[in-house]
């Protein structure tokens, strides 16, 4: 597949899946009733941050697919997508805060593993995943804090 359609396909697929999962797992009354730490950001911040990250994740996925299709990096990219898309239904849909924490820890590990294995073969993709790693680190802290407070 030529590069441009590959990039478009990955970006559209990742953003669309993220949007679909977000629409089907909207934080509702249950989430509003939870005790949250003082560093909990306002709800409006999550959609633009995740949309931006999903574009980056899609771009990096396409780049990895095009240049390192059968690599450990591609497997870690796929793993992080699986964990990423599993988290919202567990947390917001099933109200499984502890199980969601386990999943987000797996997500965090897979994101950092992607960065580590990409560092030598595709430094740009590794760098592009840094904001994602920072956000997932923060989200992991938030998930853990909500579990402890509730």
Task: Characterise this structure.
Belongs to the TspO/BZRP family. It comes from Ferranicluibacter rubi. Its main location: membrane. It is a multi-pass membrane protein. By secondary structure, this protein is mainly alpha-helical. It is 82% helix and 0% strand. It has helices at 3-24, 29-33, 46-68, 72-93, 97-121, 123-128, 130-149. Helix 1 (3-24) runs parallel beside helix 4 (72-93) and helix 3 (46-68) runs antiparallel to helix 4 (72-93). The mean pLDDT is 96.
Share of helix among residues?
A: over 70%
Oligomer: single chain
Shape: globular
Mean pLDDT: 96
Uncertain segments are: none
The count of helical stretches stands at 7
Q: What's the short story on this structure?
A:
The chain crosses the membrane at residues 7-24, 44-62, 74-92, 98-119, 126-149. This protein is mostly helical.
Helix-strand blueprint:
Elements: H1 3-24, H2 29-33, H3 46-68, H4 72-93, H5 97-121, H6 123-128, H7 130-149
Helix pairs in contact: 1-3, 1-4, 3-4, 4-5, 5-7
